[in-house]
Amino acid sequence: MHAEVGDKVVVHGRTVGTADRCGTVVEARGADGPYLVRFDDGHESLVFPGPDVSVESHAS
């Protein structure tokens, strides 16, 4: 997974009933992560790419 600043990140819930979390990449700390993401609720966290993460390019 590759993301750039401004891309939208969706972290899919890993258990039944857990909601997806959406946020925006504010800093890329490496070519393939981790990424500092500001989630829609204002919380910021490092996100390490994995199978439960998808990216929507801001260029789209």
Summarize the structure.
With 60 residues, the protein is mostly beta strands.
Report on this model:
The protein has one domain (8-56): SH3 type barrels, CATH 2.30.30. A hairpin with a 6-residue loop joins strand 2 and strand 3 (35-39). With 60 residues, the chain is an all-beta fold. 0% of the residues lie in helices and 42% in strands. This is DUF1918 domain-containing protein. Residues 1-55 form the DUF1918 domain.
Q: What is the element layout, followed by pairings?
A:
Layout lengths: L7 E4 L9 E8 L6 E5 L4 E4 L5 E4 L4
Antiparallel strand pairs: 1-2, 1-5, 2-3, 3-4
- Total helical elements: 0
The residue-averaged pLDDT reads 91
* Cross-sheet strand order for the largest sheet: 4-3-2-1-5
SS strand fraction: 35-45%
Using the CA coordinates, give the radius of gyration: 11 Å
Structural class, by secondary structure, is mainly beta
Low-confidence stretches: none
Helix content: under 10%
N-to-C SSE string, H for helix and E for strand: EEEEE
Largest sheet data: 5 strands, antiparallel
Using the alpha-carbon principal axes, give the shape. Answer: globular
